What does this fold into?
Amino acid sequence: MIQIKHIMLYFGVFLLIPVLLYGQVDELHEETFKSPRTAVICSAIFPGIGQLYNGKWVKASVLGGLEVYTLYRTYSFHQDYQETADKNYQINRNKHSWYSAGIYLYAMLDAYVDAHLTRFPEGNLVYDPVNKGIFFAFVMEF
It folds into this structure.
């Protein structure tokens, strides 16, 4: 029975020492938090604006570009369908309309999640896809 207490004590100390040494050293400032509501409203205006609000420039340009492309293709297929009344143009028009709606909804959801993650501290928990494991890393920043 004493050995189990010692094992639990050592295990508890082993788990608590990294937390006590690292803990929440970085203070999170309220002005760095992003409002999820504002991010969704920005993204509802046009996909990518919510990502710009969150500071994700690459994601914003990709989502904005995809939305412009799908809207252009929808318009192009609609014009071709009006001229020829070919069923394939109608199918492609409808398909690209659904793609556009999907990108629109994804952009709003992504902006909402990114805004919530601004409150999540960036720690030293690292995922290694090669070894498929989670481990702690020691990071030094100057």
Observations:
- The beta strands are 125-128, 133-136.
- Confidence is low (pLDDT under 50) at residues 20-25.
